[in-house]
Design brief:
Length: about 475
């Protein structure tokens, strides 16, 4: 064994758009929550945007540390924030990859800004890399990051994980720069997707659009490069969520909610306010439930928590307005002086408080029109009590539905179908609820966030072991 190998000490370097330290992870969304869970255990370096926008000199990354975990954070300029973050990432790639061609806005300046930020991040991270670092890049904001590192002569093994769906070739090819982006993905050594259908779409693109092929060992070849691509469904820190659900904060929130419910059954939805989450359709399905099954009037209560996100992007203002209108008209139509059917709240909650609310809800309503995975579905399952578990009503278009045998799987476009599934959940006997929940729990506990990290990193290490040193 060479001396270099003998003294080798691997460090995990995670690069993602948003770096979230401690308490602000939940606000930064599912990805930040998951990465913080991963890094808290393994230690390493987390590099990316600080969340700050400023107009002065941008300079070098700001370094800080919490225990074994170091952070390298960069600010964005106002122009970068507009072009890279609000522009190409959130008005082009996000809607397109969620199959919303109608909301996709392509602007060449935004695209150039996106490339510049990827370049700047690569130049900031490259000098921080040690010889034995494993580099794991996350999500659609940083597709071009790996290629920039390669241009700079970085030979490290590079992994990439796409947290959102990879769309079918017919959809992604509507993007004028689709080829440049997919080619950039080939700078990585390993590409991870959430579901088999994402991997299939990517493979279809490679073979039908890029003139590439699938090699005998399953790797993909195109643009003169070979990559491994695989399915690594992300999980939640299920053990921790179970603990959260039994915490004092959880009890307080659960008890407060139960007082308000006064014996009624609760339905809960928790989402970032985003058009991909199917919220208007969900509200309409709740309305349909009250109309189709009037015996529920006065006996159920729907709590939808949806904190606004990406508020500088116009499409997010539109969805907010639409929901305010819908919740007002549903409550106006159905409320009694002593019963408010729908509570729509736009503030954030601690993870403990959320777990307490999940635990008392008879239905976890997770009905995105398209979602890479959806962590809320898994959090809801992890937070239930085995004595009296609730029922997960889950969209077939969430990545989570690929391994969710115990859920009631729905098509969120079928408003009456979703209402029927809710009714089925409301009257479901305890034995069936328990049986379904146990199946879901086994999946969520086994394939948790640590299993996800270990599965991806095991393959990345295998690739790394073959790297010439
Ligand atoms: P996305 O990544 O699209 O936001 P996910 O469902 O995968 O969707 O992840 C959302 C994450 O954000 C979950 O961990 C969820 O608990 C958290 N979250 C969503 N809404 C709130 C809220 N109001 N307060 C606290 N955390 C929230």
């Amino acid at each position: 064994m060479s001396r270099a190998r003998a003294t080798r000490r691997e460090r995990l370097v995670v690069v993602s758009n948003r770096v979230a330290r401690g308490g602000n992870a939940a606000r930064a969304g599912g990805l930040a929550v998951a990465l913080l869970d991963v890094l808290k255990r393994s230690g390493g370096l987390w590099a990316g945007w600080s969340g700050n926008v400023q107009d002065g000199a941008l300079g070098k990354p700001r370094m800080s540390a919490q225990g074994d975990l170091s952070f390298a954070t960069l600010d964005l300029s106002q122009a970068e924030y507009e072009e890279y973050y609000n522009g190409f990432a959130n008005r082009t790639l996000w809607p397109l990859f969620h199959y919303r061609i109608d909301l996709t806005n392509f602007d060449r300046d935004h695209y150039q800004g996106y490339l510049r930020v990827n370049q700047r991040f690569a130049h900031a991270v490259a000098p921080l890399l040690g010889d034995d670092d494993l580099v794991w890049v996350h999500d659609y904001h940083l597709i071009a990051f790996g290629e920039e590192l390669r241009r700079m002569g970085v030979h490290h093994t590079l992994g990439f994980f796409l947290h959102i769906p990879f769309p079918a070739p017919e959809v992604i090819t509507t993007l004028p720069v689709h080829e440049v982006l997919v080619r950039a993905l080939f700078a990585y050594d390993l590409i991870g997707f959430q579901t088999e259908s994402d991997l299939r779409s990517f493979t279809d693109y490679v073979t039908s659009e890029a003139g590439g092929r699938v090699l005998e060992d399953g790797r993909l070849e195109a643009y003169g490069r070979v990559v491994r691509a695989g399915v690594y469904p992300i999980g939640v820190d299920a053990e921790n969520i179970r603990r959260f659900a039994r915490s004092r904060d959880a009890h307080t929130h659960g008890a407060r909610m139960e007082r308000v419910l006064a014996g009624r059954l609760a339905i809960i939805g928790v989402d970032r306010l985003d058009y991909s989450k199917g919220l208007p359709e969900r509200f309409r399905a709740f309305d349909a439930l009250l109309r189709r099954y009037p015996e529920n009037r006065g006996r159920i209560s729907f709590l939808q928590i949806a904190p606004p996100s990406r508020t500088d992007v116009p499409e997010y203002k539109d969805i907010r307005q639409e929901l305010e209108g819908l919740s007002g008209s549903i409550n106006g139509e159905h409320s009694e002086f002593d019963w408010t059917p729908l509570r729509y709240i736009t503030r954030g909650f601690s993870r403990q408080a959320l777990a307490g609310l999940y635990r008392i809800a008879r239905i976890g309503l997770v009905t995105p029109l398209r979602d890479g995975m959806n962590l809320v579905a898994k959090e809801y399952v992890a937070a239930q009590s085995g004595h009296n578990p609730g029922v997960l009503v889950l969209s077939r278009f969430a990545g989570a539905a690929h391994r969710a045998d115990g859920a009631l799987i729905v098509n969120p476009y079928d408003i009456q179908g979703v209402a029927d599934a809710m009714q089925k959940a409301l009257v479901m006997p305890l034995d069936e609820r328990r049986e379904r929940w146990r199946a879901l729990r086994d999946e969520v506990m086994t394939n948790d966030v640590n299993a996800w990290r270990d599965a991806f990193l095991a393959v990345l290490r295998e690739v790394d072991a073959r790297r010439p040193r």
